[in-house]
Amino acid sequence: MKRLPLSLLLLLFFIYLGWSVSIRQAVLFAVGIGMGAALSGARFGFTTGWRQLIEQRDPRGVAGQLVLLALASAFSLTLLGQYSELTAALGPPSISLLIGAFVFGLTMQIADGCGSGTLYKAGLGVPLNMGILPLFALGSFLGSVQVNDWLKLGQLEPIGLVTEFGSAQALWLTLAGLVFFGLAARLWVGPGRTWWDRKWLLGAVALAVLAALNLLIAGQPWGVVYGFGLWAAKIVTAAGLFDPTANTFWSQAGNAQRLSEMVLLDITSITNIGILGGALWISARAKSDSQPLTATQWVIGLLAGFLMGYSSRLAFGCNIGAMLSGISTGSIHGWIWVPLAFAGTLLGVRVRRHYKL
Amino acid sequence: MSLSKHKLQLVFWCGLLVFLVWDTTQAPPVDLRNEPPLIAAGSGKASSGGHCAIAK
User: Fold this and answer.
1) Is the CB of residue A208 less than 8 Å away from at least one CB of chain B?
2) Closest partner residue to B28 among A27, A235, A261, by Cβ?
3) Does A291 contact chain B (CB < 8 Å)?
4) Alpha helix locations (H) across chain A?
5) In this predicted structure, what is the pLDDT of residue B3?
6) How far off is chain B from A51, nearest CA to CA, in Å?
7) Mean of the pLDDT values across residues A17-36?
């Protein structure tokens, strides 16, 4: 579709949301469009950045991600210190988190996209990611159904750096942690590498500003996975296949309410739709570079997509909800998520090579 | 871009549209008088939205 009619359609949907749902949701839709345009325009792929670091010792993608994390932390931790209404992405350190993050890191390499990557690539029209999205949603839903059983294996209460140390101290600790990650990457790639790339840096700045806007407007950090699980939960509940009142997670007051009201009122759903729209807008001029896949590659990719959705619930978020939002809002679970997901990715790139994905 | 990819894209977007229309028709109408604040920061109202980091 050409950009002008597409822009008009996006504008019409923005007006519909503002008129019939709420002005906040319309503005969050616009923020989502910006996220989708930034992710796909800059090809800001968390999965690709990690893979390039491991396979080619190319640190540019990871450097872009570190800049994103540093900027988003500076914005978000300051906002959290100023406004008590805003909430951090606090997930519980748990066995569930350890397993979930590892499996997520593994499967995101096979599926060639994390939570945000799957969204923007589906919006760009990449066939595998369009196929993965419904399975990711189903996996996310099943993960949410069973997450309380996983938590029984062992968990701590969520730990927030802002609550423990205040926002200024939390920011210094966060920046120190990011410098540590940067030094570890420097040790791995060795000397003489190019670290900075304009595309990655522009994407990082844009995404950090948009993530902060999400927090400012919605009152909660950017998330992806919850919306997917909600969509699948609505469908299976309407089909009579699931009784939410008999489930610990979905019978919680907030989740039960969101299950009964329209998805356009849900914060993560509306930014997810915006991301798809923003990526579609970019795809109107972007060159398609996806290769046709064999039947085996399709099966492996779709299975990985399902497991990615399931594990993202166990890990209390994906690269966005756990890594970006977790770290930038001072949640310890984000710091645990990164090394576990990276360990999974080390295995995932091998599986990916094996199946020539 | 191949035609089949165009068709896949069409199926994907039609599927999403059908889901949103179905959901909008079966959900109770939005209470426009109880609209959330445009900007949560400074509103005095804590966010009650779902997030993937939250265990409950």
Assistant:
1) no
2) A261
3) no
4) 3-20, 23-41, 46-56, 60-82, 95-110, 115-124, 127-151, 161-165, 167-189, 198-218, 225-238, 253-260, 267-283, 295-314, 325-328, 332-354
5) 55
6) 25
7) 97
Burial class (CB in 10 A: 0-12, 13-18, 19+), A106: buried
How many angstroms separate the CA atoms of A345 and A27, rounded?
A: 35
Question: How far does the CA of residue B15 sit from the closest CA of chain A (Å)?
Answer: 10
- Terminal alpha carbon distance of chain B: 43
Contact call for B23 and A331, based on CB within 8 A: no
A156 lies within 8 A of chain B by CB? no
> Residue A333: which of B27, B53, B56 has the nearest Cβ?
B53
pLDDT tens digits for range A124-139: 888 999 999 999 999 9
B19 to chain A, closest Cα gap in Å = 9
Residues in CB range of A153: below 8 A, 6 or more apart: A94, A95, A96
pLDDT band at A268; cut points 50, 70, 90: very high
Helix (H, G, I), strand (E, B) or coil at A331: strand
pTM of structure: 0.95
Q: Are the CB atoms for B45 and A24 separated by under 8 Å?
A: no
Beta carbons of A313 and A143 less than 8 angstroms apart: yes
Query: Measured between beta carbons, which residues in chain B are less than 8 angstroms from residue A220?
Result: 40, 47, 49, 51
Q: Which residues of B touch A20 (CB under 8 A)?
A: 30, 32
- Examine the pLDDT at B8 and tell me if it is beyond 60: yes
Helix (H, G, I), strand (E, B) or coil at A160: strand
pLDDT of B2 above 80 = no
Shortest CA distance to A293 belongs to which of A281, A284, A302, A282?
A302
Contact A127 B45 (CB under 8 A): no
What tokens were used for A64? 């872009």
Inter-chain contact B49–A221, Cβ cutoff 8 Å? no
- A254 and B CB contact within 8 Å: yes
A270-318 tens-digit pLDDT: 999 999 999 999 988 766 667 788 999 999 999 999 999 999 999 999 9
